[in-house]
TrEMBL record:
<keyword id="KW-0472">Membrane</keyword>
<dbReference type="InterPro" id="IPR013780">
    <property type="entry name" value="Glyco_hydro_b"/>
</dbReference>
<keyword id="KW-0812">Transmembrane</keyword>
<dbReference type="Pfam" id="PF17801">
    <property type="entry name" value="Melibiase_C"/>
</dbReference>
<feature type="domain" description="Alpha galactosidase C-terminal">
    <location>
        <begin position="365"/>
        <end position="441"/>
    </location>
</feature>
<keyword id="KW-1133">Transmembrane helix</keyword>
<keyword id="KW-0326">Glycosidase</keyword>
<keyword id="KW-0732">Signal</keyword>
<dbReference type="InterPro" id="IPR002241">
    <property type="entry name" value="Glyco_hydro_27"/>
</dbReference>
<dbReference type="InterPro" id="IPR017853">
    <property type="entry name" value="GH"/>
</dbReference>
<dbReference type="GO" id="GO:0004557">
    <property type="term" value="F:alpha-galactosidase activity"/>
</dbReference>
<dbReference type="InterPro" id="IPR013785">
    <property type="entry name" value="Aldolase_TIM"/>
</dbReference>
<dbReference type="Pfam" id="PF16499">
    <property type="entry name" value="Melibiase_2"/>
</dbReference>
<comment type="similarity">
    <text>Belongs to the glycosyl hydrolase 27 family.</text>
</comment>
<keyword id="KW-1015">Disulfide bond</keyword>
<protein>
    <recommendedName>
        <fullName>Alpha-galactosidase</fullName>
        <ecNumber>3.2.1.22</ecNumber>
    </recommendedName>
</protein>
<dbReference type="GO" id="GO:0005975">
    <property type="term" value="P:carbohydrate metabolic process"/>
</dbReference>
Amino acid sequence: METQPLLPSRGVSRSRLALLKTAVVSVVLVAAIAALLSYSGSLWRSRSVHSPVRGPSFDGDGRPGRLPVMGYNTWNAYYCDINEDKILKTARLMKSLGLLDLGYNYVNVDDCYSEKQRNSNGDIVEDPEKFPSGMRTLTDKIHDMGFKAGIYSDSGWFTCQIYPGSFQNEDRDIKLFRDNWNFDLLKYDNCAIPFDNVIKEGMVGKFQRMADAIDNLSKNTGRPPILFSLCQWGEEQPWLWAKKISQTWRTTEDIGANWRSVMDILNRNSFITWANDFYSHNDMDMLEVGNGELSYEEAKTHFTAWALLKSPLLVGTDLPSASEETLSILKNEEIIAINQDPVVGASISPFRWGINPDWTYNATHPAQFWSGESENGTVIMLLNTLDEPADLTFNLTESPWLRAGRQYSVRDLWTHTDNDTAVRTFTAHAVPAHGVVALLLRDAGDEPEGLWPPCMRLNWCMAENGTRYDGRDFMEL
Ligand SMILES: *[C@@H]1O[C@H](CO)[C@@H](O)[C@H](O)[C@H]1NC(C)=O
Ligand SMILES: *[C@@H]1O[C@H](CO)[C@@H](O)[C@H](O)[C@H]1NC(C)=O
Ligand SMILES: *[C@@H]1O[C@H](CO)[C@@H](O)[C@H](O)[C@H]1NC(C)=O
Ligand SMILES: *[C@@H]1O[C@H](CO)[C@@H](O)[C@H](O)[C@H]1NC(C)=O
Ligand SMILES: *[C@@H]1O[C@H](CO)[C@@H](O)[C@H](O)[C@H]1NC(C)=O
Ligand SMILES: *[C@@H]1O[C@H](CO)[C@@H](O)[C@H](O)[C@H]1NC(C)=O
């Protein structure tokens, strides 16, 4: 901090008393300025910088975000080129194509819906050319069709496309979004971050401000809080803290409509699957199914991985021109059922990486062998990351969710067929390049008698008499 020099700079001599006076006055002045600064800071900073991250207090009926969000978001298909006609047309198609019935029940507006400036009251205003009927009319129509509605803002000065952000306007904006406009979900972005000497709360505090405003509004109105969807790109480990203040948070940078991006996001998420549960979802970003360079097999793999890792499933393609192939992927009921499992909130996780050693971080060749629980049995995902077809084999005991000594019936969740019974091991033959296999394994009783070796896991495999099976024979210890 800059202070007045206590001694005059040019050689004027002074008495000691005068010197002391100058010193006292300076100290008082500095203290007063400091007090003033900290007071003006506290005008907008309600949160003690040392308090731990606080979660939402609402736990009544209608608490949002138990299961991954499903629906539509405008960004991947239209970017800033949005308006009420396009959004309502999309909503009507979501319904007539059967997507609403399958659980895609949010219609979300992304960036670029507002005017560039707040009005004279300080409120965000919808762009009158894009939304001539107003936001409230739009959400009324969306609600009437049976959907919920989502809106977008940013935790900084501006949105990523430089429309007004909500920093220091959290209370005002959440009232507008929730009470006036009647939205059910807020996607909250991470652009235009205030200087450190303004914010003084870091990344967590910047998002906590809106979480507090959401909590306050729901306390004051008695209405369930808006679903809070953080878009913090995974740079500050949101899976550690965002899970306390929101229901879903982005884990990576924006997705691209190509295989490289899909594999990169899957690789990163393979290490943080533990953060998924009810009310708590790693968001791998909006779907690119139907977009860009993704082939049919690649789009299937993308959709399967997002669903089984319990990511939100937000359609992001232009529905009026969507192909039958695209729709058939988005409408796989058996895959959607696992994403929306009412009993198991956890994600699948890798049990073996495959061509790379376990725990390898590799953006082009992530883990290939995955499993997890579901209400109906054990879910398996097998991924061919290679550029040519491959056989993918696993032993049942490699998954913690499959029991030794039992056999399992195998349901193929893409061909919708009941395949063989798996005994000890399973092979998916000739999985296409960049293809996926999704299976549901259900217990089908004891495995046949007399199978050899006596343990599928040979390590410390022991007979009752204390002799150890070493893979070839029993040996005395
Ligand atoms: C929430 O309400 C509390 C108590 O009424 C108040 O102290 C706090 O400043 C409010 N916070 C926000 C973000 O509105
Ligand atoms: C479990 O099976 C039932 C009956 O087929 C089905 O309705 C439900 O969606 C399935 N749940 C999951 C998580 O697959
Ligand atoms: C990723 O894995 C593939 C297959 O093993 C390997 O060829 C490639 O070099 C790896 N990439 C990096 C950056 O290690
Ligand atoms: C399951 O059976 C169907 C029908 O025969 C077949 O097309 C599919 O490839 C099988 N799935 C696996 C993983 O082997
Ligand atoms: C599968 O089990 C067989 C027989 O015990 C064993 O030889 C093989 O190494 C196992 N494979 C894996 C990947 O664990
Ligand atoms: C111990 O039990 C194993 C498996 O039943 C058997 O093969 C082996 O001969 C027994 N060894 C002795 C010393 O009894």
